[in-house]
Amino acid sequence: MAEPQSLGATRPPTAVTASEPLWDCAARTDVGKVRDHNEDYFIVRADLGLFVVLDGMGGHQAGEVASELAGKVTSEFFDRCRKDPEMTWPFKIDRALGEDGSRLAVALRHSNDRIRSLAAEDPRKGNMGTTAVAAYLKGDKTFVSWAGDSRGYQFRGGKIWPITSDHSLLGDFIRQKNPTPEEIEAFPYKNVISRALGPSADVKVDTLLVDMKPGDTILLCCDGLHGMVKDDQMAAILTRQKDLAAACRDLILAANDAGGVDNITVVLVRRKAGR
C-alpha angle 35/145/49, rounded to 5°? Predict the structure, then answer.
């Protein structure tokens, strides 16, 4: 696999729109109103059906290095798979998911290794890492993989629901205790994640096969969005704003209006009706 070039020098554009025969997509990222630089990174590869949101973390701006590296390694892995279907993968395929369903998790685990290798070379990057949430659309199938608290949502008929579960202390608390909204609000460790790319040698990446019907939209985002904007507000924006690029803009505006305390990144992918 080719080494990514010029790390930190080629951040993605702040907004992207694209279209393929089976889906439309758009993405947008924003630094927010508090941070002085953006450690998020996104990948929109409509040609590959690959969509990724990464939220970097680590001192000395190492978070942006980790997120960009993970994005480039994932994109390169998918490119290599397309060019050479018989290539050897760095990790085994999950038999329950098959080759298509395993591709995202293998790419993200490979990214984890590359982040750790780079961190080992530079003490200033020793604690760097990134959360990740990614979607892979192949024909009529949609797979979503994630590690950390960046989320995937599904939107259909005016309703939205999460299709990922946060790998965080708060997420564990919710799954184990079934707390009230007041208990969730009072939980003191909301920002502590329990899984990400980088910190551990062997990261577990969760993957789901999503029942995505024509007209459905997948929303991928970092906690800079879902931590500031309630699910029902996201649904209202997606219901009102049919244009995906404009919906990305309005979602980010809503997060900034709520305080914009973190970087904000949104990727939207909609299966075309009638396909």
Answer: 95
Question: What pTM was estimated for this model as a whole?
Answer: 0.91
Q: What is the CATH number of domain 15-271?
A: 3.60.40.10
Q: Are 64 and 38 in contact (CB under 8 A)?
A: yes
Q: b/e string for 57-77 if b means 16 or more Cβ within 10 A?
A: bbeeebbbbbbbbbbbbbbbb
Domain residue spans in the chain? 15-271
The predicted-structure confidence for 70-106, as pLDDT tens digits, reads as follows: 999 999 999 999 999 999 999 999 999 999 999 999 9
Kindly report which listed range (26-30, 34-38, 181-185, 233-237) carries the lowest average pLDDT score: 181-185
